[in-house]
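Give me structure tokens for this 211-residue protein.
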Amino acid sequence: MFRRLQLQIKGMGLTFYLPLIGYFIFIPLLAYFLNLSEEDAELRFLTVQKICYQFVPMLSVIWICMFHREYVEGEGREILILGKGILAVSFVFWAMNVPCLLLQHQLFHWSDDLFGEMLVISFMLCGLAFFLNFTFGTVSLSMLVIMFYIMLSNVELYNFFALNSMEQPDKYDSFFYSALQNGGLFSQEAQGYMVAGVLFWLIGMYKAKRL
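Here you go.
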């Protein structure tokens, strides 16, 4: 499997480095410039938290989508699908996000909660990407769906749709997308995302075998 992983990384070319650039250059620089004039530590953390919720979810699915592209769009994909290990290699490409998140956690002083939230969200979204890639048979459409989901998740939709928002402004946060609204994950939400992630991974594996 290690040799297969090497070949897949080599085949990605420069796109392999996109998440690394995002994790270690783009996010730190954006957080730095947005916090230049901010002296309050709590507000600085909230800025970093918001940036992470906006960009880490998309960065976390790039590797797995680039890996699946050859399987769902490349020539000879029928032969590739017959090979074993697609779930294992897909999981490795998600797991490659973990040391990146851990290094950010240590270097840029994330809270333990934020680190855990990013792990849960990246696991669920990589599972969703696995499922969508082999359901649609195209990586591009899957990434568009995920991007739309992330954009939707960073908008407080109850401000638009809630008729009684003045009476109970918080109850509309319980929609399925609420966990990405940079407000932190409650334990119940985290459990829901983990369960959804496991289901997406399993269904994605089933779809891959039947493609």
